[in-house]
Each structure stands twice: as C-alpha cells, then as structure tokens.
Q: What sequence folds into this?
C-alpha cells in the first residue's frame, strides 16, 4: 500500500485551462488538510479518497475562480500538538490558502485556535464537538458536520415519541460522550418531563469492559438505553448485550451507530430496531447521490462510507466558499464562507453566518438486518438547519470576538 | 575509654537466635578481630553495629553515645567507616572523586548545587590516596582497578569520614595472600597513627593472628572466647569448635 | 443482590483474559529481563491472525479449537523471529535499550498490521454456540465467558506443569531467579531465551484469538492491552506466574464491581490498585526482591567533563541556533522551538534517569502537570504567560514532591512501572474530568502575549530557557549534589556508609526533574495555543525515553543530541510518508542495535579510543 502524500492534482490542469495557464492568478488554490490518517484510518482513508474525487471533479469543471484546487494532506498522529505544528507548515511552508481537516474534536479545536491566532481560514470537516463553533467559536473557523448537539437533538426527538420512561445512558468517558449524554438528557427531559434517567455507565474510551457494563445496565432495569459508544467499544458492547439479552424489549437510541464505519463491523450481530443517526450509503436513491456513489465506486472500487460523504462535501463547501468570496484573501473568504451554499450528494447545505456551522443534515433511522448485515431502514434526512437551537441561544454561547 | 561498647546484643530470625547476648568493647587504635565458623553470627553482629540490622535487645555505644538501631547513614555520620566484603565503590567516578565524595559528605557539603566537585579537597583526597598507596591511580576509572586496589580505595574512602571506628567485613576476601598481609599491615599502621578503633571479621587466620590486638570468637551466636592471639590459640573450646576442624571451615 | 453473582462471574472472565496476556509478559520478563512493550502488539497480531484463520474454517467448536492452536503456533513463531532478529542483538545493551527496541517493534507492527489487514476493525462472526448463554441467578451469562473463566486456571495449571515437571521449566525458573547462574551452568542461553520468547508470544497470541468472540481484531489493541498487562505483571510481582494470576483476579473483579459502584473512575481504579499494592509490597504481591545487581560488574564509564573540542562544537551549534531566525522560515522556527522544548523534556528525564538511576516511564506526567498548571491559572485567574511559565515548574515540583514519597522507595522496573501508573492516572484525570480540564478538548486559547507572539521572539525565549535549564541541570550534576546523586546510583551501600541520604537525594532529583519538565510543558503549551491530554499520553512518555536513550545516558550531551535527532526525524518522517511509524520504528531498532550506548555514547567511545588510560 503505497500512499502518495502530496497529491498534486493541479498537474492535470492543462486539460482545463490550457490557454491561461501561465497568466497571473492562476496558481492553484491550495488546501492544506490535516487529519488522523494513522490513528483513525477506518474513517479517514475513505474520507481522503472522496476529497480526491471531489478535487478532481471541481478541477474538471474548471476549478474555482479559474484556478485549480490542490490538496495537500498531513497526518496528525491523533495529537493536537502535531496538528498545530503541521498547520504552521501548511501556512508558512506550503503557502496554503485554506486549512481544513481534523477527525478528533481536540484536533479541530486546536486548529481553530491556530486559525484565530494567525488569522487563517480553517474549515473543519468531521469534529463533532459543539465548542468548535459555539463556546470556542471564532471568526476564522467553520465546521461542516452536524455537531454532537444536532445528532443528540434528533435522537432525543425520536426518543420522545417512545413509551419508554426509565432511561439509562452509556457513553465513553470523555468530552464527546459527556456532551452527547448531557444534550440527550436535557432535550428529552424538556420534551418529556415524565422521563427518568435511572443510571449511567462511563466506560473509558477504547477500553470498555463490556460484560460488566452490560450487566450493570441490565441491573438498572431500564425501558430505554441511550448509547454513545462507537468503534471497537460498540462491537464489544453489542456482542455482550446481544448474548445477555440487554436489548430485548427495550428501546435503544444510539449516536452514530448508523454510520457504515461502525455498523458494518457488527456484521450479522448488528442490532435491530435501534434508533440511530448515521448514513444509509448506497440506499439513498437521489440522482445526485447515485451519481456520486457510482463515481466513488468506479474510482476506488469500494462503497462510499460516511467519511467519504464528509470529505466530498468538505471540498465542495470550500470550492463554494472561495467562489462566493471571489478571492483567496483571508478576510474576504471569511465573509464569503458565511452563508455560502454548496451542493453535497445528500442535498444542499450552507455555512450559517451566525455560528459558522454547516447545515449538512443528519440521517436518522432504525437499524435492521439485511442479508446478514446491518443497515439503516425507515431513515429520513433532516436538514441541519432544523436541528440547531434558536439564534439567541447560539449568540449567547458564542464569544463576541467571533464575529 | 573505649570507642565502641557493645552490650547484650541479641538478634533472632524467625525464632532462631542468630546472636545472643554479645558484649565487647574496642579501644582507640585497637584492632579487634571477630572470628567464628560459618553461621556463627559474625555478619549479623557486624550489621547490627553498622546499622544494617536493628538488634532485638542490647545496646551499641559509640564514644559514649547510644547508636543502637540507627540506620547505616546515621551511624556513618557518628564517625563509623566501613569496608565491605564485596567492594562497594562509585563506579562512574575516578578514584580521586570517590575519596572526594567521602570528604564532601563528611564536611556536610553535599547539598550544594553550584560549585563543581572538581578541585575540591583534591589535596586531601590525594593525601589519603597516597596513604593507601593509590596516588598513581588517582585519575583512573574505578572500574579498571585491580581487586586489591579497590580494597585500598575503600579504605581511603572510609578514612575520608575521619572515623573513630572502622568496620571491615572480610577485608581481604578475594585477595592474593601476599596482598592480604600488606593491606592489613597498612590498616594496622593507620589505626595506630590515627587512633582509630578497628573491628573486623576475617577468615584468614594468619592475617587474624598477625595484626589483631584481640580476638573475639563467636559460635552459634554466642561469644565463647576473647583474648590475644596466644590465648585464643590455646583455648581448648576454640580449638574444639573452630581450629580443630579449621582445615575445612576456614573458607566461605 | 442477585447481581453479585453474574458480576462476579463477569469479573472472573475478565480476569482470565488479563491473565493470558500478562502471563506471557511476566515469563518473558522473568527470564530475559526485557520489558516487552511489543507484547500488546503480539496480542493484536494474535487477534488478526486468529481472525484470518477462523474465518476460513468451519464454524464448529472443534475447528475453533484447531484455529486457536494454529494461531498460537503462528504468534509463537513471530515471537521467535522477533527474538532472533531484534532482541538477541540487544541483550548485552542496558535493560532500557531493550525496551526501546521493543517500542520500535510496536511502531513497525502498527503499520504492518494496517498494511496487511486494512483499517477497518475485523470482528469474528460468532457462530451459534459462541452466542449461547446459561441462566445464572436470573441473569443470562454468556457461555463463552464461562469457558474463559476456566481457560485462565487451565493455562496456569499447564504452565505450572511445564515449569515444575520439565527440565526446560526448571531452567526457566532458575533463570528467573538468577540469570547469570544459569549462564554459568553452561546452558545454551540463546536457545532458552528464544524458546521463552516463543512461549510468551504464543500466550499473547492465545489472549488475542480468545478475545475475538467478545470483541474484534482492531488496531487499538496493542497499546490498550499493554498497560493492563503491565499493571497485572507489576501487581503480581515481576516474573511470578501465580502472582500474575492473583493480580488478574484482583483487578478483574475490582473492575467488574467498580463499574457498578463508581462508573466514572474505572480507568483510574486499576492504576490506584497498582499504586497501593506497590506502597505496601514494593515487589508486588508475590514477587521477590530483584537479585541485587552485582555492583562491581556493571561499572558505568567514568563521567568526565566534556573535552574542549565538544565545548567548541556546542558553542558553534548555540551560535547557529541563536542566529536561526535570520535564515530559516517560520515553520522551521516552530520546529526549532519544539526542539528547545524537547531538550528540556529529555534533559530533565536524563537528570533523574541517568545520574539518578530512576528510569521514569511516565515522564510526560510532569510535562502535562506543568502545562495544565499554566493553563488552569490562565483560565481561572487570567494569569499572563510569565506567571504561567513560573507556575508550571512550581506545580510540577510540588506534585513531584508528593509523589516522590511513593517512588523513591522503589527501584528498577517497579519504580518505572509506578511512574507509568502515575502518568496514566494524571492522563485519565485530564481526559475524563471534563469540568475542570476540558477533557480531551483541552484548555484552549493559551497564546503568548503580544511581545512574544512573533515566532522568532518566542523561539529565542524558548532557546534561552532551554539552554539555561540544560546548563543549570548540568551545573548541578557536576556540583556535589549531582555527584552524590550519582554516588547513590552507583552503590547504595557505599553511599549510605559515607553518610549520604539516598532517599532524600533521589527525592530532590525527582523534584528537580519534575519541575524542569513542567517548565517544558508550559513552554510547549504556549507554543501550541493549548493544553491537551495527549501531552500526558504513554507515547509521549516513551518519546522522552527515546530521546534520552538514543542520545545516551552518560552525559548531558546525550539527551540534547537525542532531542534534536528525534524531533527532526519525527518531523521529517511525519511530513513525508504515511508509513512514518514503520520507518521510525525501523530507525529506532537499527539505532539500538548499532549504538547500544546511544549516539553521544558511541561518539564518545570513538573519540576516546586510544585516549583513555
């Protein structure tokens, strides 16, 4: 597996604009992208693939502002400190116009801090933490994906429709898990004052003792379970839960479990009937998504994952933002990105001017087994703008300096 | 007045008495040998005086002050120097630095973080090294010294503490016979010159009879005889348990 | 109360899994004295290999057993390869270098595994019998977990038979007690070591493949398992199989009930158990005191002041460093700033580890405490950077003084492991206590004030501080205190007999090292704009070890060279290839094999050739 680090797609630029190749202002628009390629490859590799696909497509259509896009990627090794150092390299050495990337929330926040401090534009793709655009939001940071709040909000809405009254929560013990639980509790209690939270489990991230955790949850005799575990933790949890009958006759609402990155590994043990957020993948039959999925399959001989969608939409959003700004001047780009609308394979979205949050939506549905594999059924897509709290609430959270 | 006075010293390990009610005293400049067959309690006795073991009963007085049950460091501070059966020196230092450390420690100058060690008490260190015949080796690494030289170095380090009492555990173990006599004669001279009391254990009887002023004989933890060389040689009890079978029990 | 029995059984199953991994580690350590960081990687390989084999076999129990046996043999073979290709070449190197080599192997295996099996986690599809359960006290209990409960004792029994009823086992036990004695008996030590490694690796593989029905083969197994295994081995007593078993039971059961009672502190709980055990039993529950190192035989080379040529070279390097902002770009200035931080980080570890003889596996704890100290002050009181930079060493020093009480009583690997445990506790607090530390999101917005915001200015400040700290540490090492510290390392008995207070000397060394390291943490935090739990992670602690050992333990030059080489190497590799872990791991292994006394040590040897009397 030889992976070329510097994917200089600008080299094919002669196809697009042969005539003015050497004219001034035709240097490629460089996107410096930093992500956890070695520590979270399951998500980030399909993500990078889709970014490359999107860059090719944008360039094939003539690029942005008559300039080609060029993508440079770096591995942050899962450490914010490395991400910040590499951001410096991207800006000072590689002279990129836009910083992008991050999978982990702390990397996203660190890059956001770097952007604010150095007055650079940073577009976060995947990080979920609310702080990125709210408490720690700043003028130079935008975030594409629906946040922890948005994901928890839709699950709380669905959970409120259920008869379940006694709820328990299980979440990895770190910021993402704690925020997810906090929002779910808050939003569900607001809708259903009769709901009770009777217990919680906080396994350490990546080290769940699934048997003991399941046993402890079982002991609480809940009607409903809210889960934030993902990855190998989720696999362990589901297996123990299945065998020990934890999920039988109980409602389960589960954050992110519908993403193929997490659902596929469960194989024929994927739970049925869980209410999840996620990504139905090739089951989405809109023409835009079909075309995208087909192109992705052709190029990489693999099915598009949730990460692919994020990577693809990220590049599109950057292209749209720069186009709207009409320049790669940083301050102009900030203004341009605010309210910039962009296409994604799942629908239109925009970067909200109020908090720089992207309105890429959330798929919510139920898990089911089809041909011995987990899928999302009865899913629907909720536009991100419908999942965000009121403007006053957002203004209250966001620092004044972020305007 | 005696430098060291030991009274009624006892120690048991798991119910087995290793040393029982041992009393003796050492005068300044005197060399007192502690002998006995294997398992007689010599090392236990020694370690109780040196602070490595805490006695069950009895007292140890140094210059009239009780040092019973103190740790090895405190006992060293009270003016007891030591050499070990297996030499213990500072391997990452030169010969001179080893002695300098003893001098610095004795003068309470260890907790200094600024002035380098190099150049401090060099003359005194060299004088001590000269005293034990190591002056030519002062700059060498300790690790490359011959075994006999290491023993001498230990002696020099111990003297750096200006001890009133010198404890020497098997000082000549592992040395060639000719060297043994040399080292102990040197010790004898130093003891006399400086008025240092020396308590030592030794398995080489020639050495013992040659240099010691007095000899204590331990057997099964109990003192069975005390006296000068001639008296010990003549003591039937000693002959019985020790010298009588001496051909085989001398070694360790 | 009908939950007690199922929870107890769950704890027992967990204990069995723990024991399987820990048993291999403890056997390998007992005989070869190698702290095998790659043991978790072997378990990970066991899981992946097991997955590859079992998914190709019919899904009946008898084939399952056969697949397990095949997996165990395969991982044992990998262990043999590892021993013969890498470790055999470093047995004569100081103990910690072997650890370094095994960490190189960890890095290599991470990329190799990714390359062979891909990034997606691979759960073994469970056949029907693996999903079965039995009803116990009204609760369903997985049939497979019942099997696991028995596997632990069965493996212990088999190992006991091997150890006590075969000549090979007798040799292994003898070697565990006294390695030199066995060598003196004329036993072929190479064969013994290789076979012990094969057994240990096979046990790791067994642990890996047996974990499959409950979890999956994934790329995070290695590091998550290795800390657990270390804890079990240390709590049980290094080299003691029954000890490892008892410790597994203790931790497995505590874990199972801890989850019910205090769900949020499970991570800390494990390490607290270890700390408590080590306080009361410094050699673990069933460990023996390590045979006193034969002091005379392991004489370290004499430390002498640097030769004039080296001073001149250092002076030139310093001049170049001062002038750097005039001829390198902003990015390289940040790398140089990182290098300055790394120098203090490594030099402070060297201080306690080289002259102090206390090898810390958790040095990043002080780095993190310093950084969080500065960060929290800034967050709560709005303290400006100079105050933060002052508070960092003070806070790290104070914590070091408290922690030192536990540490200075221990020695050798136990001491190292307690530092590791301590760092993990600090990490867990920073990662999980979101209300105070911000959790993994960290403390943000920690930027230098206006006057130091220019990269050149900040770099100069970092350079001045790092050079000052390095010189101060060096000064202390050549002063009576430093000599006394080294004396206590060389020979505790001799040190005490000249009146040195060994415990206090070491305590102060820990405080000085902690404080200096704390400063480097704050310096780093202000350069990166924030404090994150990753500052305290195990890999970061290992980086400190890497720098010190790569450079060389003997003199102050070592950690400085190590810090520069490592920072440069890591930066270049991370920017030029996705396979940087593979390359870095290989470089580490090669360096360890080529320069067992570190780069500075090797240079010194070449320099001194013919000069030393």
A:
């Amino acid at each position: 597996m030889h992976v070329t680090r510097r994917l200089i797609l600008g080299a094919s630029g002669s196809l697009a604009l042969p005539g003015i190749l050497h004219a001034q202002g035709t240097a490629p628009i460089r996107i410096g992208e930093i992500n956890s390629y070695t520590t979270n490859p399951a998500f980030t590799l399909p993500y990078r693939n889709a970014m490359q696909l999107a860059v090719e497509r944008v360039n094939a259509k003539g690029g942005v502002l008559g300039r080609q896009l060029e993508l440079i990627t770096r591995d942050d090794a899962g450490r914010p400190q490395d991400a910040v150092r590499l951001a410096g390299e991207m800006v000072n050495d590689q002279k990129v116009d836009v910083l992008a990337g991050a999978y982990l929330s702390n990397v996203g926040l660190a890059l956001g801090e770097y952007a604010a401090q150095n007055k650079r534009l940073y577009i976060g793709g995947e990080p979920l933490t609310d702080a990125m655009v709210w408490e720690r939001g700043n003028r130079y940071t935008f975030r594409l994906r629906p946040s922890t709040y948005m994901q928890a909000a839709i699950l709380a809405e669905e959970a409120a429709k259920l008869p379940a009254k006694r709820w328990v929560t299980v979440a990895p013990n770190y910021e993402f898990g704690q925020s997810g639980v906090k929002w779910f509790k808050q939003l569900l209690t607001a809708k259903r004052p009769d709901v009770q939270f009777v217990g919680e489990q906080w396994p350490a991230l990546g080290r769940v003792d699934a048997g003991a955790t399941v046993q402890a949850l079982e002991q609480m005799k809940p009607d409903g379970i809210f889960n934030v575990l993902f990855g190998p933790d989720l696999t362990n949890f589901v297996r123990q839960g299945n065998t020990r009958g934890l999920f039988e006759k109980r409602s389960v609402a589960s954050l992110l479990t519908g993403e193929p990155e997490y659902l596929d590994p469960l194989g024929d043990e994927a739970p049925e009937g869980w209410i999840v957020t996620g990504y139905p993948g090739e089951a989405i039959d809109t023409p835009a998504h079909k075309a995208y999925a087909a192109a992705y399959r052709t190029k990489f001989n693999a099915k598009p994952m949730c990460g692919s969608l994020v990577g693809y939409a990220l590049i599109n959003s950057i292209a749209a933002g720069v186009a709207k700004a009409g320049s790669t001047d940083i301050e102009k780009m900030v203004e341009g990105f605010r309210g910039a609308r962009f296409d994604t394979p799942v629908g239109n979205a925009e970067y909200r001017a109020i908090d720089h949050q992207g309105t890429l939506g959330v798929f919510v549905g139920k898990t089911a087994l089809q041909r011995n594999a987990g899928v999302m059924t009865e899913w629907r897509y909720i536009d991100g703008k419908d999942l965000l709290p009121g403007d006053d609430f957002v203004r209250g959270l966001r620092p004044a300096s972020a305007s | 007045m005696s430098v060291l006075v030991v009274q009624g010293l006892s120690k048991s390990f798991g119910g087995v008495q290793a040393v029982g009610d041992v009393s003796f005293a050492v005068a300044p400049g005197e060399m007192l040998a502690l002998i006995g067959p294997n398992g007689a309690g010599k090392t236990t006795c020694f370690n109780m005086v040196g602070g490595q073991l805490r006695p069950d009963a009895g007292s140890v007085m140094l210059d009239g002050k009780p040092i019973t049950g103190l740790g090895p460091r405190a006992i060293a501070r009270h003016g007891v120097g030591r050499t070990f059966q297996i030499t213990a020196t500072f391997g990452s230092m030169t010969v001179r630095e080893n002695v300098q450390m003893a001098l610095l420690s004795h003068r309470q100058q260890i907790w200094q973080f600024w002035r380098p060690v190099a150049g401090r008490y060099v003359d005194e260190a060299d004088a001590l090294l000269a005293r034990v015949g190591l002056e030519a080796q002062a700059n060498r690494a300790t690790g490359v010294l011959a075994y006999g030289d290491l023993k001498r170095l230990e002696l020099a380090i111990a003297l750096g503490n200006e001890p009133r009492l010198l404890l020497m555990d098997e000082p000549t173990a592992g040395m060639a016979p000719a060297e043994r006599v040399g080292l102990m004669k040197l010790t004898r001279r130093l003891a006399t010159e400086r008025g240092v009391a020396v308590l030592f254990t030794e398995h080489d009887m020639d050495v013992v009879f040659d240099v010691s002023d007095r000899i204590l004989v331990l057997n099964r933890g109990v003192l069975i005889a005390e006296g000068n060389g001639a008296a010990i040689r003549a003591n039937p009890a000693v002959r019985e348990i020790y010298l009588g079978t001496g051909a085989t029990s001398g070694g360790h | 109360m009908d939950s007690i029995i199922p929870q107890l059984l769950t704890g027992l199953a967990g204990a069995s899994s723990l024991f399987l991994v820990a048993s291999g580690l403890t056997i390998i350590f007992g005989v070869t004295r190698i702290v095998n960081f790659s043991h978790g990687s072997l378990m990970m390989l066991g899981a992946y290999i097991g997955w590859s084999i079992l998914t190709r076999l019919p899904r009946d129990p008898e084939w399952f057993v056969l697949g397990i046996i095949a997996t165990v043999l395969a991982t044992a073979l990998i262990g043999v390869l590892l021993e013969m290709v890498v470790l055999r070449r470093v047995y004569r190197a100081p103990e910690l270098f072997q650890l370094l080599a095994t960490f190189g192997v960890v890095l290599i295996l991470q990329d190799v595994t990714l390359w062979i099996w891909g990034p997606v986690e691979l759960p073994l599809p469970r056949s029907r019998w693996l999903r079965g359960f039995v009803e116990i006290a009204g609760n369903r209990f997985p049939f497979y977990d019942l099997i696991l409960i028995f596997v632990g004792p069965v493996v212990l029994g088999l190992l006991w038979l091997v150890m006590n009823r075969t000549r090979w086992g007798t040799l292994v036990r003898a070697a565990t007690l006294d390695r030199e004695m066995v060598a003196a008996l004329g036993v072929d030590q190479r064969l013994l070591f290789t076979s012990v490694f094969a057994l240990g690796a096979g046990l790791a593989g067994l642990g890996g493949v047996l974990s499959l029905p409950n979890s999956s083969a994934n790329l995070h197994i290695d590091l998550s398992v290795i800390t657990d295994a270390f804890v079990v081995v240390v709590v049980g007593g290094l080299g003691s199989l029954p000890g490892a078993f008892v410790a597994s039971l203790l931790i497995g059961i505590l874990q199972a009930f801890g989850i019910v009672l205090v769900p949020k502190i499970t991570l800390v709980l494990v390490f607290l158990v270890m700390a408590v055990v080590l306080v009361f039993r410094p050699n673990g529950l069933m460990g023996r005191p390590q045979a006193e190192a034969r002091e005379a035989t392991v004489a370290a080379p004499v430390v002498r002041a640097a030769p004039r040529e080296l001073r001149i070279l250092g002076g030139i390097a310093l001049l170049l460093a001062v002038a750097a902002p005039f001829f390198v770009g902003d990015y390289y200035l940040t790398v140089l700033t990182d290098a300055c931080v790394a120098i203090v980080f490594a030099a402070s570890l060297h201080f306690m580890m080289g002259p102090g003889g206390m090898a810390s596996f958790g040095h990043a704890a002080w780095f993190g405490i310093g950084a969080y100290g500065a960060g929290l002050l800034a967050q709560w009181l709005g303290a400006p950077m100079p105050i933060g930079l002052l508070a960092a060493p003070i806070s790290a020093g104070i914590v070091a003084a408290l922690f030192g009480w536990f540490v200075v009583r221990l020695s050798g690997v136990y001491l190292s492991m307690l530092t590791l445990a301590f760092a993990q506790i600090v990490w867990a607090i920073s990662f999980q206590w979101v209300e105070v530390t911000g959790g993994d999101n960290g403390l943000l917005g920690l930027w230098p004030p206006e006057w130091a915001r220019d990269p050149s200015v900040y770099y100069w400040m970092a350079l001045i501080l790092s050079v000052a700290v390095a010189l101060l540490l060096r000064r202390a090492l050549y002063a009576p205190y430093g000599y006394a510290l080294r004396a206590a390392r060389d020979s505790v008995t001799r040190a005490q007999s000249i009146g040195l207070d060994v415990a206090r000397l070491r305590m102060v060394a820990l405080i000085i090292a902690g404080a200096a390291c704390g400063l480097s943490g704050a310096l780093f935090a202000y350069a990166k704009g924030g404090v994150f739990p990753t500052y305290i992670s195990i890999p970061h602690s290992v980086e400190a070890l890497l720098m010190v050992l790569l450079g060389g333990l003997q003199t102050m030059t070592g950690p400085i060279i190590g810090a520069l080489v490592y920072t440069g190497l890591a930066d270049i590799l991370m920017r030029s290839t996705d396979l940087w872990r593979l390359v870095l791991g290989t470089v580490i292994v090669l360096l360890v094999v080529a320069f067992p006394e570190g780069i500075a040590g090797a240079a010194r040897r070449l320099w001194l050739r013919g000069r030393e009397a």
Notes: The interface with chain B takes residues 294-296, 298-305, 475-476, 478-484, 486-487, 489-491, 493-502, 505, 554, 612-613 of chain C (CB under 8 Å).
